[in-house]
Each structure stands twice: as C-alpha cells, then as structure tokens.
C-alpha cells in the first residue's frame, strides 16, 4: 500500500483552489516566488482537469 495518503477532493474545490492560487500569484511582485506560485496554480488546475477526466461518464460524446 502506498505510504502517502491520497486526499480526494471534489472537483469544484480543486477549481476554486486553483483560481484562488492564480489570483494570489498574479498579485505578487515578479520574481522566483511568483514563478513558483504560478506553477502551483497550474498544477492545481491540471489536477482538477484530470479529476474530471477520471470521473467522466461512459458513452459521453467527445467535446468539439
């Protein structure tokens, strides 16, 4: 069993957390701290998007 506990959060929470992190990062002055904050916001957004793909219903038509 994996030693790390995987915390599952609802997709809506991940999206709101990603948006909050992005807003916070954009308000920071330019520099390495801002770059790291933007990376974290991007990772949160990717996690929210991947969670949506994982729980997508079968037979759903592809997005066009």
Major β-sheet annotation = none
> How many extended strands?
0
Rg calculated over all Cα atoms:
15 Å
String of helices and strands: HH
Descriptive notes:
The structure is a single chain. The protein is mostly helical and 64 residues long. 62% of the residues lie in helices and 0% in strands. The chain is built from two helices and no strands. The protein has helices at residues 11-27, 32-54. Helix 1 runs antiparallel to helix 2 (32-54). The radius of gyration is 15 Å and the shape is elongated.
SSE topology:
Blueprint: H1 11-27, H2 32-54
Helix pairs in contact: 1-2
Quick structural overview:
The protein has 64 residues and is mainly α. Helix content is 62%, strand content 0%.
Note the main attributes of this structure.
elongated; 0% strand; mainly alpha; 62% helix; 64 residues
């Amino acid at each position: 069993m994996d030693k790390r506990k995987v915390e599952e959060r609802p997709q809506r929470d991940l999206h709101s957390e990603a948006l909050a992190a992005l807003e916070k990062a954009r308000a920071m002055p330019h520099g390495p701290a801002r770059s790291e904050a933007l990376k974290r916001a991007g990772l949160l957004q990717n996690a929210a998007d991947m969670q949506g793909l994982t729980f997508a219903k079968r037979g759903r038509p592809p997005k066009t």
